[in-house]
Amino acid sequence: MAKFDEATAVTKVDETTYDACLDPGYSIGGPLNGGYLMAVLLRAVVDASPHEHPVSTSVQFLRAARPGPARVRLEQIKTGRTATMTRVALVQEGTSFIEGLVTTATLSDAVPDWTDGPSAVMPPIERCVSLPAPKDASNLTFSAQVELAFDPPTVGWVDGRPTGRPEARAYFRLAEPQDPDPYVLALAVDALPPVVFSAGARGWAPTVDLTWHLRALPAPGWLTLLGGGRLISDGWFDEEVEVWDSAGRLVAQSRQLARVGRG
């Protein structure tokens, strides 16, 4: 298995229970990245489902999960010929840290009946930039697991030049070579810095709710992440992300509600 596959692996205990060991390599300063945690949950959900792909995932982040042993608990609500709905929870030391609902189905390589284009145009990857490597004391180990090449204006906040708009755009792939799949897409939809950074906010911005949809199985190669927000108000902001694959197909969409950064 590739490193990401190992880090998100689960072990079946019984029909409704899976064990996991949450990897410290996906830390964002202590807490673990939400996309990584969703990938762990989805491994268990798909293993227990008669369908192959997590087409809709909606989770509530109740608490900040930490590295170490965890348990995934499932409750299959409905299963049918085309889809299965499963309630899922991530538990550590008897306490739920994430609660969610996942719909699984089996996607084909069907040609879209209609599709809109990307919400923004990315420059060539050779004109994009990487963020500075984090200091060891920051415990931002997540950055070592992925490669992100950013559209330069959307990371002007690093040098004190935010655009004033909630936005983030980048090319994405795993640092250890691996073709993208639905679990990598779960990581990708939550891999960008919070879009409020570009609007001038700073600090840890905890996600409260995140919903994402798998729209197609991705082609090998870089993914393109296009992130934006519609409203920052009263300490809350929204973030929407489109994920496009190397073949120019929309493969995932997400929306999350989060708190404006603190500290």
Description:
The protein is mainly β. The chain is 10% helix and 38% strand. It has 3 helices and 13 strands; from the N terminus they run αββαββββββαβββββ. It has helices spanning 3-7, 34-48, 182-188, and strands at 10-14, 17-22, 53-61, 68-79, 84-92, 95-105, 146-150, 167-174, 207-214, 223-228, 232-233, 236-244, 250-259. Strands 1, 2, 3, 4, 5, 6, 7, 8, 9, 10, 11, 12 and 13 form a 13-stranded antiparallel sheet that branches. β11 and β12 form a beta hairpin. The N and C termini lie far apart (38 Å). The mean pLDDT is 95.
What does the secondary structure layout of this molecule look like, with pairings?
Blueprint: H1 3-7, E1 10-14, E2 17-22, H2 34-48, E3 53-61, E4 68-79, E5 84-92, E6 95-105, E7 146-150, E8 167-174, H3 182-188, E9 207-214, E10 223-228, E11 232-233, E12 236-244, E13 250-259
Antiparallel strand pairs: 1-2, 2-4, 3-6, 3-9, 4-5, 5-6, 7-8, 8-10, 9-13, 10-12, 11-12, 12-13
Helix pairs in contact: 2-3
Largest sheet: 13 strands, antiparallel
Helix content: 10-25%
Got a strand count?
13
Name the shape in a single word: globular
What is the strand content? 35-45%
Q: Residue ranges: pLDDT <50 for 5 or more in a row?
A: none
Mean pLDDT: 95
Structural class: mainly beta
Number of helices: 3
